[in-house]
Design goal:
With about 400 residues, the chain is of the alpha+beta class. Among the domains are: about 120 residues, Alpha-Beta Complex (Adenine-n6-DNA-methyltransferase TaqI, Chain A, domain 2); about 140 residues, Adenine-n6-DNA-methyltransferase TaqI, Chain A, domain 2 (Alpha-Beta Complex). The protein contains nine helices and 19 strands. The strands form seven sheets. It has a four-stranded antiparallel sheet with strand order 2-8-5-6, with helices on one face. A hairpin with a 2-residue loop joins strand 3 and strand 4. The radius of gyration is 25 Å and the shape is elongated.
Length: about 400
């Protein structure tokens, strides 16, 4: 028999994760797996790899994560202590396919109790079929991870270009440049210093609750831009908005938004046409002059000088914030038009490749999500397929 009807408790043993405060963490290379994935690193492990965890509390309640190496399972997760000779990667995909919402043992705060899970009835395949299913699904994940690595390299190239040209002043023709004094220190002759408030207007976003269902335009929030320098629109939710309000808050290609509360100063840029509006915790910057390009402004805002300024200028202790006036209350260095045009052109090429890779990942995610339940349930039979599989140690 390739498939059996059994319970989850026959497949694995779960264990609650271990406490590890910020003060207890020591520099190291061991990933700490929390309910939302890797949330830091430590110098020692509590579990060997490969490992699988499920978020047992918080916003990522019920979300499964996989790691190929030894790790520290945080107390916000349940981790698989014993796979009972089953394929760890398949077990990860099995857990990832289960909707754990009905197993909430908490009240206001969702929480998973492992004893509730053990009696869950499942269809479970033989080890050879487990390995084939894991090989198919992991191929999608590996492609996604490879694309993410390429995205990171492209982003580093763009940031390095900004630093070389506009921080270290190693721009094209810098060998012949003469320097002069300015409010920002020594700058090349012919360059200008302008207040950001003169170059860009500001607008606060729209107040509404985010919805997963497409009941209106997409609703860009702070959490959609505070982890990366690009917007992954595949994960942005939706919101209802009256027709009379939509145009006021509609995002356009080239718009830049900045978080003003909780995590002030984090920046996002809209790089394609989208049917979207932005949330009230964001401030939109609209350029008032072509003397500053969208990518030049974007990389100025994520660079060290601006980020350091925001840290010092924002107010509040437990919840920092910055008004639109504070967000634009800094001077900007304006290079000659020829240099600005060349910078925009080079960065646009990097970002075009980056966004193409994001779109590929969206397609891979969608295909993988379609395959996952069909493979895990046995609806798609792979037992007779000739698929090369790797042992977990080799993988």
């Amino acid at each position: 028999m390739s498939w059996r009807n059994i319970t989850l408790g026959e497949v694995l043993t779960l264990q609650r994760g271990h406490d590890l405060t910020e003060q207890q963490r020591r520099p190291g290379a061991v990933p700490i797996l929390g309910s939302a994935g890797i949330n830091g690193y430590h110098d020692s492990a509590k579990a060997g790899g490969p490992g699988v965890v499920i978020g047992r509390s918080g916003a990522s309640f019920g979300k499964a994560h996989y790691t190929p190496c030894a790790y520290w399972p945080h107390n916000t997760v349940l981790y698989v202590k014993d796979f009972k000779n089953n394929h760890p990667r398949f077990v990860y995909y099995l857990l990832d396919s289960i909707d754990f919402a009905s197993f909430n043992s908490g009240s206001a705060q969702p929480s998973l109790n492992r004893n509730y899970l053990y009696g869950l009835g499942i269809r479970f395949p033989s080890p050879p079929v487990q390995a084939k299913i894991a090989a198919i699904l992991s191929a999608y994940d590996d492609l996604i991870e490879n694309n993410l690595r390429r995205i990171k390299i492209l982003e580093e190239m763009a940031q390095n270009l900004y630093r070389e040209w506009f921080v270290k002043f190693r721009f094209p023709g810098h060998q012949n440049a003469r320097f002069t004094n300015s409010p920002l220190g020594r700058i090349p002759e012919g360059w200008e210093v302008k207040a950001l408030g003169e170059l860009a207007s500001t607008q606060y976003g729209y107040t509404e609750s985010a919805q997963k269902k497409p009941i209106g335009p997409q609703y860009l929030r702070g959490m959609d831009i505070n982890k990366t320098t690009y917007i992954d629109w595949d994960g942005v939710p939706y919101c209802p908005i009256p027709n009379g309000q939509f145009l006021k808050y509609q995002l356009a290609e080239g718009d830049i938004v900045i978080i003003r509360m909780a995590d002030p100063g984090k920046v996002g840029i809209v790089e394609k046409h989208v049917n979207a509006v932005f949330a009230s915790y964001l401030v939109r910057l609209s350029r008032k002059s072509n003397r500053i390009g969208p990518y030049y402004l974007f990389y100025f805002l994520i660079a060290e000088r601006y980020q350091g300024y925001i840290i010092g200028a924002s107010t509040g202790t437990t919840r920092r914030s910055a008004s639109a006036g504070v967000l634009t209350g800094i001077d900007v260095l304006i290079p000659p038009e020829s240099i600005l045009v060349e910078f925009e052109s080079q960065v646009q090429a990097f970002r075009r490749l980056l966004n193409n890779l994001l779109e590929r990942n969206t397609a891979l995610h969608q295909t993988g999500d379609l395959l996952l339940p069909r493979l895990i349930s046995g609806e798609v039979d792979v037992s007779e397929l000739d698929i090369a599989v790797l042992e977990e140690a080799e993988a």
